[in-house]
Structure formats: structure tokens, C-alpha cells
Amino acid sequence: MAKTKQFKTESQKLLHLMTHSIYTQKEIFLRELISNASDAIDKRHYLSLTDSSIPTDTYEIWLTPNAKDRTLVVADNGIGFTEKELIENLGTIAQSGSKSFLEKIEQKDVDIIGQFGVGFYSAFMVSDKVIVETKSPYSNTGYRWSSKGESSYTIEEIEREEIGTTIILQLRDDDEENEEDFTKFTSEYTLKSLVKKYSDYVRYPINMMIEKKEKEKSTQVKETLNQMTPIWKRSKQDIKPEDMNQFYKHQFNDFEDPLKVIHTNVEGMLTYTALLFIPKKPAFDFYSEHYEKGLQLYTKGVFIQDKNKELIPDYFKFVKGLVDSADLSLNISREMLQHDRQLKKIASHLEKKIKSELENMMLHDRDQYIEFYEAYKTTLKYGIYDQYGLNKEKLQDLIMFQTNKSDDYISFKDYIERKPEEQKAIYYATGKTKQSILSLPQMDIMKENGYEVLLFTEDIDEFMIQVLQNYQDVPFKSVQQGESDLIDDTKKEDLKEKEKENKDILKAIKKALKEKVKDVKLSARLKESAVCLVSGEGLSLEMEKILKQMPNQTDLKADRILEINPDHDLFKALQKIYEVDAKKIDGYASILYHQALLIEGLPIEDPTEFSNNLVKLMIESSKS
Ligand SMILES: Nc1ncnc2c1ncn2[C@@H]1O[C@H](COP(=O)(O)OP(=O)(O)OP(=O)(O)O)[C@@H](O)[C@H]1O
User: Fold this and answer.
1) What is the mean pLDDT for each group of 10 consecutive residues in the chain (624 residues)?
2) Of the CATH numbers 3.30.565.10, 3.10.20.580, 3.40.50.720, 3.60.10.10, which one belongs to the domain with range 3-224?
3) What pTM value is reported for the model?
């Protein structure tokens, strides 16, 4: 008895789109079905290697058109479906490709349909009814799934011996008004050219019985329509960029062309081909823990594994692609140790290759590199920080920052090359945005000296720099931390003198602020600003902010040093107030400290105290 079941809501939406599609490139349904058939054969073959209950076969995909019945049959001897799989795989959309397609299409961009792996449901673009007859090696009986692409489908048991899947498409009637021709999908010529166009590189034979006329007699002869050479096995000159892009989008579920293709053939002790892609944008789950890095692994064109993690280091985890090596035997588990060594070697080659391609891009195609860098900079920086800096040498030359002097990104190497010789450090400043850094009081002295400052706006930046420490022996130095080294000896002497003269007032301010600050000093780095807050040499204020957001880290605090500009009118005012009524300095100290916190983007510790002091000051000034 056939059971009727309802499609899940998302499937219904997708089906509705397919059946009502005004999209012109409906022919892609064939590519989708053939690709599913090929994946199903891959799966069967792979499982048969380790599970003796799964028989192997001569793997083939068959197309059988029938013009009289208006049907097209796509058959494979792949893994087939169990009943549960029919419900799960054809009754719901679990696939990321289809999901992201649905999201995009909901934004009304109908024309992108062909760029997606829209999968099985695309059959409904050309069919009134789709029947799937199938048998899995894991079930004793066969099943028939059928649907008209509306809200429901039926499933029933059938007698079927051979493992695999047969998909019968009942083609729609032609629609002359809209110039839609579905009859053509029963024509030998159309099917042949569609296979050539979309599925030529499928690794299994796509066969069709072709009518051959000899003399008066016509006979049916089996013909294989595809070349079966995987795209990565073809010579580079013969691959059109559109074909490569199409292959990427389909194989790796992206709807945009890749930013960069790296196609490499290595021969020698270890022979392999690698086809690597850098996506234009990180995958939608890239920053989640669900993201799985890895490359597909093939041996002699036969699929072995989907995401081999060993082939790609974490800091290049955005790279997608595949490796095909004749040196790997199919039975990976039996020879794991041997493979481990071979895979490690391939991984190490690939890592160098990716790095050199990126360095090349940085040198010769800055625009493309910046597009790449803006998409993946956090991952590269994290790669430097990770494992106590184990990989810092490999990655440091790929890092770039904007500076106070230019909107262009520059590398550490660029910085060193253009800094004045007498400058002994690579300066950086940290903040939420470029603008907030540029207006930091500590930037005054940098501006005056004409020094270039790297602008750190990502959380990871300072942590990365702690690990790097220096570049080509030039140390990194924060303009917001520790003593400024830009002050010459005479200025230092001068400052010491002033601090001596103002010893009492500085002491009084420090006393008023209690444990809030470690010290109160006069500053030589400030020009226009009255105060700033700097941290000691250890933890910086920015790092404190980040650590505070993490669980169980709340008591970590940077040493705060309040610096006051002795040449600012405000300091003169403070001196006057202190002379007249020393007690009044407490309120002023609190306001100054809170102002410095605000400038640094730190939270006001005691908003009521801050506000009360301001109010008091306003009232007093109205009296005088
Ligand atoms: N010919 C087939 N034989 C066995 N299983 C199949 C076959 N066709 C489809 N399937 C199963 O049905 C699932 C859904 O297929 P569908 O084409 O909708 O998505 P997909 O190809 O997995 O992903 P996407 O097309 O979104 O990249 C597949 O993942 C696969 O498990």
C-alpha cells in the first residue's frame, strides 16, 4: 500500500519555486540528476571497500529518453535509498546548497538559479511527475517514491533486485505561449549536448542507446556521452575559466565564482594533482564550530574522502578543493600509517604552494589580495597567535594594516622599508575604529614626529603582536602603553623638573583616585589633549576589554597610569585650584580620570560620582 506523506515546509517552498519557475535555463536539471547519480556511485564504491555485504558492480549512469511517452529516465547503480533515506533526503531539504539557494532566491534574485546546486527538486522544473524507484543494499526490498511536486509524495514497496536508483521524469507539455519546449529533453541531440556541456568530466560513463541507421536497417547501439576525464586531470590550457568556475560552484556549493584557483600538478617521489579554490567570501558557517575544513581526496579520479583535515592547516582553513593522487590506495584504513606520511608530505607542499600564491598575489595584484585579506585576515592573524606562535614565521608576511598615514594596507615589510632609520620601533595603536584611534590623545606626538602608526581594530591584533614581539628585529610598540620613547633627553629632564615642582598636586590627585590608578604623571606625549590613560608594560587596556568579555576572567586589569599635559591650560587651572583650596582637587581628579576612561572607550566606573562632580563644578562656576 502506498503511503502518502507531506513535504516539509521548506521543501514545499523550493518545490513551488521549481514548478512555477520562469527561469530559462531549466536544462540544468540534468546536470543535477547526473551529479547525484555520480555521488551515489561514489558512495557505493567507497562503502564496498570496507563492507563486504555491499557488492561492487560495473558502475554506469544511463539516460533513456522516450519521445512517445514523453519520459526521460536517469538511472544509476549507486547506493540507492532506504525508505528512511527517501523520506529524509527527498522529503526535506537538509543540504546546505539548497538552503542557501532558498535564502538567496527569497531575496528575489531568480537568475542565480543555475549557479546553485539546487539538487533533486530541479527535476520538477521540467516534469509534471517524478518517480524514483530504488533499492539500497541496506534494505531487503525496493521502494517507489512519487510526486507531482505539490504538497505531498507517496512511498510504496516494490520488487526490485538490483541496487541503484531509477528516476523517471514525466515531462511537461510544451508551452508555446511561453516558448517552453520540454519535448527536446527526449531528443538524442539535446541530451548529448547537455552532457557535453555540464557533465563531461563525470567520472563514470553516462550511457545512452543511440539509433544507428545502416542501409535500411536501424539498430540501437550503446554510446558513452562523456569523456570521463575529471576537470583537474585535463591540461590547464584546455580548461575554460567558465568551466572551472562552474565546477567549483557545483562541487563546493557556492553561488559565486572563486576568488582564486590554484591548480597544481606535482610529479616525482609523490605524484598528485591538487585543485584548490579560495572562495570570495567565507562560507556561511565559517566562524561557527560546525565549519569543517578539509580537502576532498581522490585516487585516480575515484572519490575516497570528503573532508580530509590533514591536508590543510587551520590558518588556511578557508581553502576548498581536492587532491587526487595515484599513490594512495583506495583502502585508506588498512594502510593508514603509510598514508599518513604521504598525506603529510602533500599537506606540506600545499601549504607552501598556497603561501607562495598569496605572497605573489600581494606583490602583483594588490587589489585582489586586499579582497582576499579583508575576507580572511582574522583567520591568518589567529594562525600567528595559535600554538604559541609556532607558525608566526610562515604567516607574518601575509599580514597588513591600515595606518594613520594612508588608507592603503601595508605589510610589516612595507613599514620597515619606509620608516626613518632612526625610528627604533614599529608603532601601533588600538581602538574600535580607525577614526577613534586617530583621535586618541596619544596620537598627538606621533603626528608631530610624522611617524607611521599601524591601526589595530580587531580583537585579535594585540594578542597576535604579543606573540610576534618584533619583525626583522624591530620591536612592536604600542603608543598607548608604557613610557613613550619618543621624548628626547632635554624634554625628559624638563619633565622631571616639572614633576618635582608639582609633586604635591600629583600626589594629591593620586590619593584622590585611590587604587583606580597605579600612577599619575605629567606627560610629554600630549600636545592638544589635556589627559590620557596609558597602561603599564603588561596587559593593555584593549586586551583588558577583550578579556573582560570572556567568562571567568573578570578580575584581570591593566595597570592604569593617568597622564596629564603640563602645558595645557587645564593643568594651570588645577594648579590654581590646588593653591587656593587643596581639598577641591578630589572632585577634579575624579572628573579627569573618568574623562580619560571615556576617551579610551572604557566604561565609566562610577557614573553617579562622575555626574555629581560635574554638577558641583557647574554650580560653582556659575557662582564665580
Ligand atoms: N541517485 C541518487 N542515489 C542515491 N541517493 C541520492 C540520489 N539522488 C539524491 N540522493 C540523495 O538525496 C539527497 C538530496 O539530493 P539533492 O540533490 O536534493 O541534494 P544534494 O545533491 O545532496 O545537495 P545539493 O544539490 O544541495 O548540493 C542527496 O544528498 C543524496 O543523499
Assistant:
1) 88 82 78 91 88 91 97 97 93 62 56 57 93 97 95 95 97 88 95 89 93 85 91 89 89 91 91 96 89 88 80 96 80 51 90 97 96 97 92 95 93 95 92 92 87 95 93 94 74 88 93 91 88 86 80 76 92 90 89 89 85 88 77
2) 3.30.565.10
3) 0.71
Establish whether this prediction's ipTM goes over 0.90: yes
* 3-state secondary structure at position 563: strand
Which residue from 7, 38, 39 has its CB within 8 A of the most atoms of ligand 1, so it is best to mutate?
A: 39
**Looking at the domain 399-478, which fold is it?**
Rossmann fold (3.40.50)
Alpha-carbon distance values, 117 to 30, 32, 97, 98, 142 (Å): 12, 7, 6, 6, 27
Cα–Cα distance for residue pair 357/363, rounded to 1 Å = 10
CATH number of 489-623: 1.20.120.790
How far does the centroid of ligand 1 lie from the alpha carbon of residue 89, in Å? 7
Q: Which residues are documented as binding site for ATP?
A: 32, 36, 76, 89, 96-97, 115-120, 165, 334
Distance (angstroms) between ligand 1 centre and the Cα of 168 equals 16
> Which cell goes with 414?
612595507
Å from CA of 564 to ligand 1 middle: 68
In 3D space, the residue among 403, 268, 205 whose CA is nearest the CA of residue 412 turns out to be: 403
User: What topology does CATH give the domain 231-368?
Assistant: Ribosomal Protein S5; domain 2 (3.30.230)
Instruction: Give the start-to-end residue ranges of the domains of the chain.
Output: 3-224, 231-368, 399-478, 489-623
Pocket of ligand 1, beta carbon within 6 A: 32, 36-37, 40, 76, 78-81, 89, 95, 97-98, 117, 119-120, 165, 253
CA distances from 239 to 84, 204, 520, 593 (A): 40, 20, 68, 65
